Amino acid sequence: MILYHGSNMVFRTPLLAKCSPHKDFGQGFYLSDSFDVARRTAFRAVRQRGGTPVVLVFEVDVVKMQQMSFKKFVQPGNRTWAKFVLANRNPKMAAADHNRNRRYDWVVGPIADDGLAFLFKMFERGYYTLGEVLRRMQFGRRLTTQYSFHTRRAISLLKFKEARHV
Engineering a disulfide at 42: which of 10, 51, 53, 110 sits with its beta carbon 3.0 to 4.6 angstroms away? Predict the structure, then answer.
């Protein structure tokens, strides 16, 4: 399977220590199955940190992925997905299922776009309950998929193919 990562610099091997904490599925290296999503992410990274927009292309062995600990979300509009994302974004939130401790080598599921990120912020600040967040979620268009790799073992499956300057 081919996956794409948008960045402001070229690198061949992701370093987990440089990955941002408190992301949708926990601290990890995030990729998309959409080149366009990765391209937009690259431009956002350049606006925030400077550099040159680039999409890094990786190949991953799906059979070996299945032999690891993973979590897969198909539908974003449910309580399980929302609670998981909220728990990973907010380390103070009590939750039975999260990936703050990297219990999953990798996770796949929908990207919480800017509209959903706003709802999650409103929850974190105490303005909305979880029920209100779920009620306000709207999925008029298909959300894109993200893959996140959280352990060195999972990162080792990513084989760098090329860097595409965009």
Answer: 53
Contacts of 150 (CB under 8 A, 6+ apart): 16, 25, 26, 27, 28, 29, 99, 102, 104, 105, 106, 107
The fold adopted by the segment(s) 2-165 is Phosphoenolpyruvate Carboxykinase; domain 3 (3.90.228)
CA distances from 109 to 67, 77, 114, 142 (A): 18, 11, 16, 12
How far is it, in rounded angstroms, from Cα 17 to Cα 37? 23
Q: Name the residue among 151, 73, 156 with its Cα closest to residue 105.
A: 151
Low-confidence residues of the chain: pLDDT under 50:
140
What is the value of pTM for the model shown?
0.87
Contacting residues for 4 by C-beta, under 8 A, at least 6 apart: 31, 32, 33, 34, 35, 37, 38, 55, 56, 57, 58
pLDDT of residue 126: 86
Which residue type does 59 have?
Answer: E
Which among 28, 41, 33, 29 has a CA at the least distance from the CA of 2?
33
- Describe the chain by its helix, strand, coil percentages, rounded to 5: 35, 25, 45
| CA 70/CA 68 separation, integer angstroms | 6
